[in-house]
Design a protein that fits this description.
The protein is of the alpha+beta class. It contains three helices and four strands; from the N terminus they run E-H-E-H-E-E-H. It has a four-stranded mixed sheet, with helices on both faces. The protein is globular. The structure holds glutathione.
């Protein structure tokens, strides 16, 4: 399942969640969200996998990425693939 590492105060994270909703993706069914605000275990995962303390961050199996635009494009591809 796609994991989205987010922080509540981050506008780029809100953008990703809005896009997911517009694509008809549902939390728990299509993706999970993990709090990755500073000092959280989620932030440690972001740092160890991606190397930077930045959100939003997506992990989907072996794929991981920063950048909200790239994440939105990835989510869009996910819904259009069979
Ligand atoms: N270009 C990035 C910008 C992401 C960004 O600036 N995220 C901020 C939070 S809104 C961040 O993680 N800053 C580092 C930090 O919070 O430690 C994107 O579009 O995703």
């Amino acid at each position: 399942m796609i994991q989205l590492y987010l922080s509540a105060s981050c506008p780029f994270c809100k953008k990703v969640l809005l896009a997911a909703s517009q694509f008809g993706l549902e939390e728990s069914k299509d993706f999970t969200t993990i709090d990755a605000a500073s000092g959280t275990p989620g932030r440690e995962v972001v740092l160890s996998v991606g190397g930077k303390g930045m959100v939003p961050f997506l992990i989907d199996g072996d794929t991981s990425m920063y950048e909200s635009d790239d994440i939105v494009t990835y989510l869009k591809k996910t819904i259009s693939s069979p």
